[in-house]
Amino acid sequence: MSKLTDVPKRILIGRALRSDRLGETLLPKRVALPVFASDPLSSVAYAPGEVLLVLSVAGLSAYHFSPWIAAAVVVLMLTVVASYRQNVHAYPSGGGDYEVAGTNLGRRAGLTVASALLVDYVLTVAVSISAGIENLGSAVPFVVEHKVACAIGVIVLLTLMNLRGVKESGTLFAIPTYVFVTGIFAMIAWGAFRGLVLGDEMRAPTADLEIEPEHPGLAGFALVFLLLRAFSSGCAALTGVEALSNGVPAFRRPKARNAATTLALMGLLAVTMFCGIIALAAVTKVRMAENPAEDLLRDGTPVGADYIQHPVISQVAEAVFGHGSVLFILLAAATALVLFLAANTAYNGFPLLGSILAQDRYLPRQLHTRGDRLAFSNGIVLLAGAAGLLVWVYGADSTRLIQLYIVGVFVAFTLSQSGMVRHWNRLLATETDRTARRHMIRSRAINAFGACLTGLVLVVVLVTKFTHGAWVALLGMCIFYGTMTAIRRHYDRVFEEIAAPEAPGDDMVRPSRVHSVVLVSKIHRPALRALAYAKLMRSDSLEALTVNVDPEETRDLREEWERRGIDVPLKVLDSPYREITRPVIEYVKSLRRESPRDVVSVIIPEYVVGHWYEHLLHNQSALRLKGRLLFTPGVMVTSVPYQLRSSEAAKRRARKRQEWTAPGSVRRGPAERTKETPANSRSDT
Amino acid sequence: MSKLTDVPKRILIGRALRSDRLGETLLPKRVALPVFASDPLSSVAYAPGEVLLVLSVAGLSAYHFSPWIAAAVVVLMLTVVASYRQNVHAYPSGGGDYEVAGTNLGRRAGLTVASALLVDYVLTVAVSISAGIENLGSAVPFVVEHKVACAIGVIVLLTLMNLRGVKESGTLFAIPTYVFVTGIFAMIAWGAFRGLVLGDEMRAPTADLEIEPEHPGLAGFALVFLLLRAFSSGCAALTGVEALSNGVPAFRRPKARNAATTLALMGLLAVTMFCGIIALAAVTKVRMAENPAEDLLRDGTPVGADYIQHPVISQVAEAVFGHGSVLFILLAAATALVLFLAANTAYNGFPLLGSILAQDRYLPRQLHTRGDRLAFSNGIVLLAGAAGLLVWVYGADSTRLIQLYIVGVFVAFTLSQSGMVRHWNRLLATETDRTARRHMIRSRAINAFGACLTGLVLVVVLVTKFTHGAWVALLGMCIFYGTMTAIRRHYDRVFEEIAAPEAPGDDMVRPSRVHSVVLVSKIHRPALRALAYAKLMRSDSLEALTVNVDPEETRDLREEWERRGIDVPLKVLDSPYREITRPVIEYVKSLRRESPRDVVSVIIPEYVVGHWYEHLLHNQSALRLKGRLLFTPGVMVTSVPYQLRSSEAAKRRARKRQEWTAPGSVRRGPAERTKETPANSRSDT
């Protein structure tokens, strides 16, 4: 494992960042911005193109609507950012949309948001990586020729990195994000300078193509529907905005204010970049179509199936910087890298949300404890598997994947904002201070407007995209919702079943005595140790037990027992079928039948070995017996381990595993050290 | 599982046989014959054809050698049967060739035989099922058109049946075997009657074909080599003879004599059937070729790739009984069924041999205990996987698979017979009684002749078949040999490491006191039970331990602890990173550091649930902690189980599983009940 991922890790992350221990410190705004904004900012790499794509259905003339759609997206973006600034102030605990919806609208709303976000994480991986591959492909044709394989390769790489536990570092995010943002702004500025000042004519590589409209002369309702669909696609630019509200605890103080400022900055950057790209696309005459092979014409004939439609950002960059120029290649690389980082964001967000859901018992409890590698690993593998499946099914085509993408985000937006309205209503009911009330009313208005607008967009997205793939996302949400409800129901049932009775001794029979039984097969060190420990325990009675599988071995055991003068009676159980489990279970049951209030303590010597294949060679009967004994009431099962020399290897491995860092720790902020329960306090009652 | 296999099981076995509990009774000869002879007798279904196939390389004229080759096979068969009759008398314990070779020639020879037999079992499955499919295919064309799929289907079916634990019943074997034997004899008799008395001309469906010899006019050394190769192929008829020597304990008394008689009877039947089929094939002019598509000519042109070469037995049956006649179809079905039963034999023999090898610590110990379902399951899956792979790689072509088959058998034959010679030498060295000596000298002569002849055949097989596939079998043997040696070495090393020191307290530090720690997360029934049990144990000190993962929960726990007045001190460990394992391990280590001679007893309340998915939701932290604690010296780990209601389901399943019968029990004979250690005896020392 170590060998396998070190080289790409070094390439992707750089060696020096290893010691960067940001996970334990708080983030200043300049680092928080790239950490949280790589996801929303990277979406400007595909969102403008999606708008043009959809418009092309009505032909080139529909491109004239693109500024209006951009304007609508900008309004929406500003609304959402303004709304979330309220969230951040009101809920600085980092619970995010799930907490807001759950607290204010009830469990079901919370769970719906959680399901939507989980689906969203899967799609973030699928869409971002597909788009990243497409951007990289505009500079390196090989990549786009083997799109699916490359995309799945990147997923595998990210998965391995996260399974190993990469320490997410601010610098890791900062460099590509700032390079990307700078690059886009440089492109916009240089484009504007060339166009407005120098008067250059910049032409995108597709400027000479014509578009054969699928539905020429679209008008009336059909045109409105198409425009709404284009707008829905443009809304992809908003994905990832909600993630910052989970990350407030990671900010430097004043946490809420810094987070809100970062959010505003992020919104501003995103909006400017989005509009700049749309404008440059119009100026450089970028031509994109939903079915480029048929609908794009070169000199009157379709371009054909082997035409590769490059992303809008790379077409614009080519027009502004020139094909193959250093800046062009740098921007393509930075875009791809930021998109991959956005995908990595989901690898962090998924377990983070999982841990919050686990705390509320919607997911297995062990997800709650940080650094539980096994639990996180399962989550990461689940995420990667689902994303990989989507990438494979949809041929790593970001355009088709985006159809699924936006539903989840807007479900979260709408429910979260509605929850915020309730939140302010609740506070207003008791608040008397005038300034505070005015403040709250203002916040409520912002959130109410946000809720209405995002709700409207959700309806638009559902209507325009349902058959295009949104149903897949809804299905995914239902599956998550159903699973989590079932888990919660199970926990509730168990909780009820095991609740301690109020009056002590209510229906719990008080055990009276302990009868200890040491299982022995041979006289060897593990058995002697088990006997020694058992004697220390001073139970009411103690005997050694052996199962007579081989008469000769049993005879030898008896003889040695006597010879050594072991002062514990040895009982031999006959086993005509050479079984071990059944005779022991029967014997234990018979002891319990004789005196039902007694507890039987079964003590099993156990070998501890270092490798799984060694494990196959030992303890198998003991393990099976233990498993069966657990089902027998009134029994306690004790393992007395005997560490073989080879167990050292496993110990070393376990120690190494403990140094693993759970993904997402940088954006979760440091764990709170509590003052209330100082370590090693002892309270006797 | 139950639903899945019940219907085919009923079809294959019939419902009424369920109650047949032959596994617990001894076999009379008339039942033992079909049980043990299905394997060797079924080989006459393919062995004669293989002889013709090889001869065809030299052209039709070489077919004249077939009676001579048949004669050689008969001599060999009679020799082997005579030899094994000596084995059966000398080693009635059922250890078979492995025991004979191991006892007389040393560990390595024994292990070589065991490896050869294990490979042989895999090939028995592959060859028998492929041949069965081919025979069935002569009556049902669909089957042979989807040869590989059908063959793998049968493997899967047999595997499922054996995994579930089919009670092997004598009747199950008796009916198809006797139908098969009767059918073949009826065919030979009716053929002889038609040919000799009625003077009918019976013509096989291939009688009109010509053979284009691959090497026409073969003579001298090349011809001898070809004849030897044909003989080697004919030796396939001998496979399975050795299996009876493992089954002596299953016979009625006098075991050895009955087994020897059965062996003789089996040899006689096999020889007669083999010769009868060869003779009928010659009379009815069966034409077979190694490459039928090219080398068989109809009216001078090759028959082409879609020609299906039916097995010799079905061609002869067609000539004698008529195509599509009831008897023809009955015989084809019985042949296929007997071949499948022969394959099933391997499913029984593999774990049987495995259990003997496990006793000698060449395989994991748990294979030794009967009825250990998990262990047997692994063996069955391994067998099925290897056989399935071979079937797939070799396209379920019995002819190609047979090239691999015979090596293993003859390795076993040769080593076993050599071992017998040593055995008699050893006995003769001390024996003084004249009659006994004469008897032994006679037996030694038979075994010596057997060893020489089978050794010679082994050399012939290796020389003529090595490049045709025998190397694959040898490779398989090496792999088994290597694995088993490594396992034995591991056990020996551990055995040495854990050997009890002679002087008590040699280097084992005697522990002085026990400090008990009960892990508590909440106050619920499992925790209360664990506390109650822990108090009963009267260790030197007792405390409850909780890890502060969530300060609020910890506070609640403390309050309730005090409120309930639990008289055990509660210790709280701080865990800034919400970990559980690490703080507990560190604490236990610190206790051990304070007083190194103390033992720490960690008591963990454990939920017992009924389904694996429930298990994922509970105990995960406890399990991980237990795993880590086992590596910490001076610790004993106690589980106090709390059975949730859902655990009843698992209990029922476990009980059902216990009624499972290990495959191969019928041929292993009943387990010996030993008089020495009566059940529930108690010996206090």
UniProtKB/TrEMBL annotation, chains A, B:
Keyword Transmembrane attributed: yes
Keywords: Membrane, Transmembrane, Transmembrane helix
Domain of life, source organism: Bacteria
Regions that span the bilayer: 65-84, 111-133, 139-160, 172-193, 218-241, 262-283, 326-353, 374-395, 401-424, 445-463, 469-487
Main location: membrane
InterPro entries attached to this UniProt entry: AA/rel_permease1, APC_K+_Transporter
Disordered as annotated region, ranges: 646-685
Gene3D superfamilies in UniProt: Amino acid/polyamine transporter I
Protein name: APC family permease
Species for this entry: Streptomyces composti
Lineage: Bacteria, Bacillati, Actinomycetota, Actinomycetes, Kitasatosporales
